Amino acid sequence: MKARLKWVDGVCFVGETGSGHAVVMDGAPEGGGRNLGPRPMELLLVGTAGCTSYDVLTILNKARQDVRDCWVEIDAERADAEPKVFTRIHFHFVVTGRALKADAVERAIRLSADKYCSASIMLGKTADITHDFELRED
């Protein structure tokens, strides 16, 4: 896997992924940025949510669960001192579908957290990561 990062100015950068997609990252005005894009640590959280969601949806699909919608609300805390690593991350999954089985959703989240999601397993080296979910009938 390869990527490229190009400095624009101040604390603004454009990252390009190996698959050819670009993302702008910038800092807050009080930190010298112009707020043109998300902060790098925000992208790390969103990327991790994407990684685990991919796993969860793939597992639920294989379990023949009729999922119609899914999102993850993320709440995280960082250390006060440098390096300001994540110390706590909570993923709250909201899964909407028809006749969803809670045990299937719980299993999918557990498998992602314990076995498949490289990003959350890596972040788990510094952060206490927790998960919960709610089911909504479509």
SSE layout and pairing:
Elements: E1 3-9, E2 12-17, E3 22-25, H1 40-62, E4 66-78, E5 86-98, H2 102-116, H3 118-123, E6 128-137
Parallel strand pairs: 5-6
Antiparallel strand pairs: 1-2, 2-3, 4-5
Quick description:
With 138 residues, this protein is α+β, with helices and mostly antiparallel strands. It has three helices and six strands. The strands form two sheets. A three-stranded antiparallel β-sheet has the order 1-2-3, with no helix packed on it. A three-stranded mixed β-sheet has the order 4-5-6, covered by helices on one side.
Molecular structure report:
The protein is α+β, with helices and mostly antiparallel strands. It has two domains: 1-38, N-terminal domain of TfIIb, CATH 2.20.25; 40-137, K homology (KH) domain (GMP Synthetase, Chain A, domain 3), CATH 3.30.300.20. Helix content is 32%, strand content 38%. A three-stranded antiparallel beta sheet has the order 1-2-3, with no helix packed on it. The radius of gyration is 17 Å and the shape is elongated. This is OsmC family protein.
Low-confidence stretches: none
Task: Label the structural class.
Answer: alpha+beta
| CATH architecture label of the largest domain | 2-Layer Sandwich
The neighbouring-strand order within the major sheet is 1-2-3
Q: What's the count of strands?
A: 6
Q: Return the CATH topology of the largest domain.
A: GMP Synthetase, Chain A, domain 3
User: Taking all residues together, what is the mean pLDDT?
Assistant: 97
Total helices: the number is: 3
The major beta sheet can be summarized as: 3 strands, antiparallel
Terminal residue distance: 38 Å
**CATH superfamily heading of the largest domain:** K homology (KH) domain
Order of helices and strands: EEEHEEHHE
Helix content: 25-40%
Gyration radius (Cα, Å) is 17 Å
Strand content: 35-45%
- The total domain count is 2
